[in-house]
Automatic annotation (TrEMBL):
Composition bias, Basic and acidic residues: 1-15
Catalytic activity: 4-amino-2-methyl-5-(phosphooxymethyl)pyrimidine + ATP = 4-amino-2-methyl-5-(diphosphooxymethyl)pyrimidine + ADP; 4-amino-5-hydroxymethyl-2-methylpyrimidine + ATP = 4-amino-2-methyl-5-(phosphooxymethyl)pyrimidine + ADP + H(+)
GO biological process: thiamine biosynthetic process; thiamine diphosphate biosynthetic process
Function: Catalyzes the phosphorylation of hydroxymethylpyrimidine phosphate (HMP-P) to HMP-PP, and of HMP to HMP-P.
Protein name: Hydroxymethylpyrimidine/phosphomethylpyrimidine kinase
Family matches, as Gene3D superfamilies: 3.40.1190.20
Domain (Pyridoxamine kinase/Phosphomethylpyrimidine kinase) ranges: 31-280
Region (Disordered): 1-21
Entry's Gene Ontology cellular component terms: cytosol
Keywords carried by this UniProt record: ATP-binding, Kinase, Nucleotide-binding, Thiamine biosynthesis, Transferase
UniProt pathway annotation: Cofactor biosynthesis; thiamine diphosphate biosynthesis; 4-amino-2-methyl-5-diphosphomethylpyrimidine from 5-amino-1-(5-phospho-D-ribosyl)imidazole: step 3/3
Taxonomic lineage from the root: Bacteria, Bacillati, Actinomycetota, Actinomycetes, Pseudonocardiales
InterPro entries for the chain: HMP/HMP-P_kinase_dom (IPR004399), PM/HMP-P_kinase-1 (IPR013749), Ribokinase-like (IPR029056)
């Protein structure tokens, strides 16, 4: 084994071959309960037929009831993981989850820039601005909000906030479908290419109609709302399914439509686990039996 400081980057990316699936990178935190974060991302990548790679930003101590601990990985180690993956395996599309701090965001963006990941480069970059767990514990330092708004969003191909993240990032308190478009416009003003505002938290709406916005057109993404409390990891699964479709070369509207179909089926197969909120299930795609 070699220690971090002995490992130097600089390999050329391995040329793609006909037998290798597309690759997708998640830059995210781990969830010991296996429901959210990079655990959900890797499961989704597998179910969607792409090879998943990871840059771990934080280790969370988490179960279905809540998050009781979070240890940040040093920003230079996060950047080194991005570098190691991109310089050898290659990245067809990347996504972020928990980014923990402004220092980690800056290190990640530098590493992504170096490898052409982000809107100025060729590789699609999905920024899911995860700020807190479903159970309410913060997963982001307050200093990271401006780094997200002014550094990460302008480099993103797509930003995918839920309504709590919209409130935190823009001050907009969305309660109706019409408010979702105002929210999308406010996030779009930070400079991403596309914005997807998710409607899961509009609890009184009988459907889940998310909105995709490119600065001109608002594309509604209709879906049913299932009567389940088990939605842990829904946003991670959605952003990962979109990232997988982008890695396979889909356009943004097609990738988001396919991600929406994927997450809707995953919510419909959500299962109870532990004493709290269970996960949405990606088993429906890979298992002969529906759990
Ligand atoms: N009860 C539900 N039934 C069907 N789809 C849902 C439900 N809750 C959330 N979704 C969908 O799951 C995706 C993630 O939504 P949301 O819960 O808003 O994000 P997050 O998990 O980041 O908080 C969206 O497509 C949303 O419409
Ligand atoms: C490591 C990690 N990443 C992301 C989430 C958000 O997922 P959710 O909103 O479903 O709690 C989480 N709880 N933990």
């Amino acid at each position: 084994m070699r220690w971090m400081h002995e490992i130097s980057a600089g390999h050329e990316a391995r040329p793609a071959n006909d037998t290798a699936p597309p690759t997708a990178l998640t830059i995210a935190g781990s969830d010991s309960g296996g429901s959210a974060g990079m655990h959900a991302d890797l499961r989704t990548f597998f179910a969607c037929g792409v090879h998943g790679t990871t840059a771990v930003t934080a280790v969370t101590v988490q179960n279905t009831v809540g998050v009781t601990g979070l240890v940040e990985i040093p920003p230079e180690t996060v950047a080194a993981q991005v570098d190691a993956v991109a310089s050898d395996i290659g990245v067809d599309a990347a996504k972020t989850g928990v980014l923990a701090s402004a220092a980690t965001i800056e290190a990640v963006l530098d590493a992504c820039d170096k490898h052409g990941i982000g809107r100025e480069g060729r590789t699609p970059f999905v920024v899911d601005p995860v700020a807190a767990s479903r159970s309410g514990e913060p997963l982001l330092r307050p200093d990271a909000l401006d780094a997200l708004r002014y550094k990460a969003f302008p480099r993103a191909t797509l930003v995918t906030p839920n309504l709590d993240e919209v409130r935190l990032l823009t001050g907009i308190d969305a309660h109706t479908r019409a408010d979702l478009l105002d929210a999308a416009k406010a996030i779009f003003d930070f400079g991403p290419q596309w914005v997807l505002v998710k409607s899961g938290h509009l609890a009184n709406d009988p459907e889940c109609v998310d909105v995709l916005f490119d600065g001109n057109e608002a594309i509604p993404l209709p879906g049913p709302r299932y009567a389940t409390v088990h939605t842990h990891g829904a946003g991670d699964v959605f952003a990962s399914a979109i990232t997988a479709a982008l890695a396979k070369g889909a356009s943004m509207p097609d990738a988001v439509r396919s991600g929406k179909r994927f997450v809707t089926r995953s919510v419909s197969h959500a299962y109870p686990l532990g004493a709290g909120v269970g996960p949405v299930s990606t088993f429906w795609r890979v298992s002969p039996r529906s759990f």
